[in-house]
Amino acid sequence: MLELLCRSAWRSASALALLAIALGVALGVAVSAIHHAALDEFEAGLRTVSGAADLEVVAARDLDEALYPLLAVQPDVAHASALVERDVDVAVVGGGTLRLKVIGLDAFRAAEVHPALLPPVDGFGRLMEPGSVFLSHAAGRALAVAPGDRLALGRDGTPFTVAGWLPAAGAGAVLAVMDIGDAQWRIGRPGRVSRIALRLRDGVARADAMSRIAALLPAGARLQTPDQALARTDRLSRAYRVNLGLLALIALAVGSFLVAATQAAAIARRTGEIAFLRAAGLTRGQLMRLLVGEGALLGACGALLGVAIGHALAALVLRVSGADLGAGLVVGVAPALSFDAAASAAFGLLSVVSAAAGAAWPARDALDIPPAQALRAGHFSRSPRSPGGAWRARAIGGALLLAALAATLPPFGGLPLGGYGAIAAVLAAAVLAVPPLARALAQSLPERTVLPLALARARLLAEPGFASRSAAGVLAASALIVAMAVMVSSFRGSVDDWLDDVLPAALYLRGDRDRAWPDDIEARLGAVAGVIRVEPIRHQPLLLATDLPPVAFIARPLPGDAGRALPTVGPQWPADAADALPRVWASEAMADLYGWRPGAAVTLPLAGQALQVRVAGLWRDYARQHGAVVMDLARYRALTGDRAADDFGLWLNEGADAAAVAQALGEAGVVADPQALLSGEDIRRRSLDVFDRTFAATYALEAASALIGLAGIAAAFAASGSARVREFGLLRHVGCTRRQIAQQLAAEGLLCALPGLLLGVLAGFAMSALLIEVVNRQSFHWSMDWVVPWARLAGVVFAMLGAAVLAALLGARSALGIGAVRAVRADG
Amino acid sequence: MLALTSIDKTLPGASPRVLLHALDLTVASGEYVAVIGESGAGKSTLLNIAAALERPDAGRVLCDGVEVSALDDDDATRWRRTQVGFVFQAFHVLPWLSLRDNVALPLALAGVAVAERRRRAVAQLAALGLGERAGDSPTQLSGGELQRVAIARALVHRPRLLLADEPTGNLDADNAERVARLLRDAVKGSGASGLLVTHSAAVAASADRVLRLGRDGRLGAP
């Protein structure tokens, strides 16, 4: 039986179907493998930094080092180790920069908590020498430096000498370690540390110790377990990963449609063979298993090929564009690719199941034909059974209802699973609607038309299911392209508008986290010719929940303490003179992640105090998907006494040239680092560049899906062409020219692709609505305005239509050769 | 009249095989000729060459004064469209067209107006006893009925050459006899040249002349 299965599967296998399955699996596996490689390495890096700590004290903007001796002497604490951490961009020999994690530590204290961060014992002395740095091997390789080489690491490019290696650091960790005092002085801030890691005494319950230690911490400082830090890291990129994974799944679905189409045609072609096997003694069950097994085998071969291609693709992407597919979510690691068993198994299983399911339906139809009838001369191979109109209408209605219901579900574990389910249901409804639409389109053609079109019309009226099988891939691919095009255009258009709102000034001066501006900076900036107004901006990361990344707090002038200067969305809480609470504007992410609503009174840990504020309204923020809160600067200063500023927005005279003013600021000695000055236009351009880079991976997935969809048309027509070879031969005998047969095939390709495309576009719009209103909202917590790229969509539709006709012709080219003429002679 | 003169045809390949060699055959208008021979002797190739579906390696094919072996593919197709009718062993009726539209196919290719071709197709079906079923799908017909549809299609455009390749190979004895009679009557009634290849001595016996295609690639007495 197994031998029979292998032989028959080999005969019915379609290289295109195999390739389509492989491509779908490859895309999914590649996306997963890339992100796992990056996250595994990132996690390993975090574990290296966390070391053997049971608890860590962190703050969004460093801790006072005075906290360290206080915590070290607590009875619960066995060992404590303070670290200074900075991500430093280092120039690489040959061009480019490498983001290096630089850690400052006390070698003797760190030995008990962070052993992986230490050089060999004989290097301890060198570690404490000022100007010395130890590198992980990965960092040394990436920077092409060896012990004794000099490395510009410190602020203002202070050179450090590479004193040796960190043998225990992870293979992919891009790390540098120096003495904590040196780190505070050269790259951080004197008197400040980034984290304090604690090892508890044996026998101390961690939960009890946490509550005792948390009571000692100042506002803004948080106590967390290393696992909580890891969970935050995973959250950073999870939504992005899942969205890319979904695209890969759709590509796999397109491949599955393709398998179903080719299996259906192959089984229809083999009706006589199947009937013979039944007559020869194979039971219906055995034959069903044989045919479904063929599909599964095809899926398995495609999966194996796909897993191999996926890992090769992942290795290539990691080498070329980095671990985050250009999204900028994972930095500072040099990930090593390893076999992604989970993704390979999951996508492999999906491909086997979908290919087996694709074979099961036509197999059932073939087995329903009595063998005696199928073996009779002149028996017509029946096309797979198509569900009746009432059943189909109910199924379409049910799928759409399911989509509507799924779209209203809340996120599950932070993921928009309901949105994904709704997208799948919309796709299913659209695929079900192809045969009736294909029939309606064929019927709408005049009966008295040119012969090739009349023949194509007659065939599709008789077999609307063929349109469904061949066009399902095109439908899914075009739906994906339309959905992504509308979503990305809407997103890009909204980001463009948003940049106008959030970048009102002509020039921006960026501050350095570790160096305060001089007190008179505001006056000096305003004194430079061309500058008419200076707007200080204060940034502060606030950790509001240990399992979520920090929220950005921004204090900037808001005229009239109102949100007019912000891209606000939804209703606002009216200002009330009797309300003593200061007003803040929260980004949409705050509403989704923390449940903040206009009018709510919430607490912010600001300037060492827990400050109650009123949420005045929500605003759209595309820069910080983990939340941002804005308060009027004057109010903030009055409440906290903090008069510092991080960045400045500079308004210029009408007609003033931003570049000339920037030069004047440098010449006047107000701004020492010219790179700290950016024009609003520069920031806008860079932001849109990042946006486009981020979506480059999605474009690649869309293109792959389109190719698979077109391969579906080609495969369906190839299978159908080989099944219909005698039909074409007959047409040649009765006087059809090759051109007329080609025209008939082109017309069939057009009539099959058109309903697929029309429904694909409709489904694409529905899917874009789900992506914009449900998936993006739940994944990234931002809304957007609709922008439909009509011209681009029209281009895609016409290109797909043309490509579908070509694919149909290519697929059925065997029908045009002499083989067709000879086939007529064969016993039918 | 169909005239094949000095026809050579060799099957190419690693070990080429001569199918037809210096073959001469003339079929007069209204004459019905049967060719018998072993399987693989080249009978179907002979029909293909007569219909200008394949080119001979050497020799000429003339049909009513037209040298069809010299026509290019498009011209040969156009000639076949109006001048040749085919009947096959496996019927080759298109399952997605009604009986009427199947029969009307050669007329559609010849550019006959829709109403006229439908009228002629139904009349041709009626002449073969299937007029009542003109609107039916071929999937509802028996083998004998399907072959009658195929014969109707082969005759509807009044071809000058009727070619039949094992037309009774899939039929029972009664139906085979009926089809053989129909083909002979069609040739005699239309004045076309009829060329039939078959294994069946009984069917061949209905022809005016019977020839055997030998292993030497020539036609001879049966």
DSSP summary, beta strand count of chain B: 10
The main pleated sheet of chain B reads as:
6 strands, mixed
| Name of the top-level CATH class of chain B | Alpha Beta
Q: What is the alpha-carbon Rg of chain A in Å? A: 33 Å
Strand content of chain B: 25-35%
> Strand fraction band of chain A?
15-25%
Give helix % range of chain A: 55-70%
- On the 0 to 100 scale, the average pLDDT of chain A is 80
Structural class estimated from helices and strands of chain B: alpha/beta
Overall mean confidence score, pLDDT of chain B? 88
Q: Which descriptor suits the 3D outline of chain A?
A: elongated
Structure, explained:
The complex is a heterodimer of chains A (828) and B (222). With 828 residues, chain A is of the alpha+beta class. In chain A, strands 10, 11, 12, 13, 14, 15, 16, 17, 18 and 19 form a ten-stranded mixed β-sheet that branches. In chain A, strands 5-6-4-7-3-2-8-1-9 form a nine-stranded mixed β-sheet. Chain A is elongated, with a radius of gyration of 33 Å. Residues 325-333 of chain A have low confidence and may be disordered. Chain B has a six-stranded mixed β-sheet with strand order 6-7-8-3-9-10. Chain B is globular, with a radius of gyration of 17 Å. Chain B has 222 residues and is an alpha/beta fold. Classes of the chains: A alpha+beta (828), B alpha/beta (222). The A-B interface holds A 376-378, 380, 382, 447-448, 451, 454-455, 458-459, 461-463, 726-727, 729-740, 818, 821-822, 824-828 and B 44, 48, 51, 53-54, 73-74, 77-78, 80-82, 84, 86, 88-97, 101, 105-106, 108-110, 114, 137-139, 141, 143, 146, 153, 165, 169-170.
